[in-house]
Design a protein that fits this description.
The chain crosses the membrane at residues 210-235, 241-266. 32% of the residues lie in helices and 26% in strands. The protein is α+β, with helices and mostly antiparallel strands and 270 residues long. It folds into 2 domains: 27-198, no CATH class; 208-269. Strands 3, 4, 5, 6, 7, 8 and 9 form a 7-stranded mixed beta sheet that branches. A two-stranded antiparallel sheet has the order 1-2. A hairpin with a 2-residue loop joins strand 4 (81-99) and strand 5. Helix 4 (208-225) runs antiparallel to helix 6 and helix 5 (227-235) runs antiparallel to helix 6. It binds zinc ion.
Length: 270
């Protein structure tokens, strides 16, 4: 990973052993000599990984639950064919800044996103562990340099360089699924720390029939409600309103039948 982004190893000022630095910590005690080191992270780029809490089977189950949910087409969970499932670590930049005495955490993708919604990834600080080189095989290389993150913080968030406490590279564990549904290929990601599902394009529930039935229903009832007004003008007395109201009741009941049938047929179909 050193070819693109250089991450820092902070060393003990007493014995030069590598320090295990907790995310967000200001001090670290050396495991070897016990010296308490103040951590100057203003120039350091520490590297962490989020510990996965779900395995491959649980990730697949989370995807099926999402497929069975309200956003997706009915029957997707049973009809979708999962073709591949791959574990990977996606790089994110995590910046801690101080704004009006409050610590604020900013997250930015450190590589190109296949799924835009990943920008909403949450990084649970409690689950961060120092990155281990053994994880390298699954890790996607960061392509966004730390200078771009500093520029983004300054230009888009209005944060002065002096307000940045630390910037860390965090690899987030994800399961990437490729699945097939009705002859189309789709990709979905499952966050291996939270079980959250991310998908940009998926078989969405078709909302239009519900909307148009609802719209037609509203219009029909609005027009029916005008009947007493019309009969009042025709008969030219309050008897006209009573007649109109009776006609209105009949029409309202009659209208409910086709609207109900249409709604029922739509919910069977989608
Ligand atoms: Zn030491």
């Amino acid at each position: 990973m050193a070819d693109v982004i250089t991450t820092t190893q902070l060393l003990c000022r007493q014995c030069a052993a590598a320090l295990v630095v907790e995310q967000g910590a200001k001090y670290a005690t050396c495991d070897f000599c016990g010296t308490v080191n103040f951590l100057d992270k203003s120039e350091a780029v520490l590297h962490y990984a989020v510990r996965p809490t779900i395995d491959a089977t649980q990730a697949a189950a989370a995807l099926r639950r999402w497929m069975a949910g309200n956003q997706t087409e009915k029957g997707l969970d049973t009809a979708a064919q999962i073709e591949t499932q791959q574990f990977q670590l996606f790089p994110m930049w995590l910046a801690r800044t101080e704004e009006k005495g409050q610590e604020v955490v900013h997250l930015k993708p450190a590589a190109a996103l296949s799924i835009v919604e990943l920008g909403n990834l949450r990084v649970p600080a409690a689950d961060l562990v120092p990155f281990d080189d053994a994880l390298d095989a699954d890790a996607i290389r960061p392509t966004v340099p730390v200078t771009a993150v500093r520029a983004w913080l300054a230009e888009n968030e209005g944060i002065a360089a002096g307000a940045i406490r630390e910037i860390s590279l965090v690899h987030v564990p994800l399961y990437q699924f490729k699945y097939r549904y009705k002859d189309n290929a789709y990709t979905a990601l499952v966050d291996a720390a939270t079980g959250q599902v991310f998908a940009a394009i998926y078989p969405e529930k078709f909302e239009l029939p519900y909307v148009s039935i609802g719209g037609f229903g509203c219009l029909a009832y609005f027009l029916a409600a005008l009947i007493p007004l019309i009969t009042f003008y025709v008969v030219k007395s309050s008897v006209g309103i009573a007649i109109g109201a009776l006609i209105y009741l009949g029409v309202a009941v009659a209208l409910a039948v086709p609207i109900f049938i249409a709604a029922a047929s739509v919910s069977r179909k989608y």
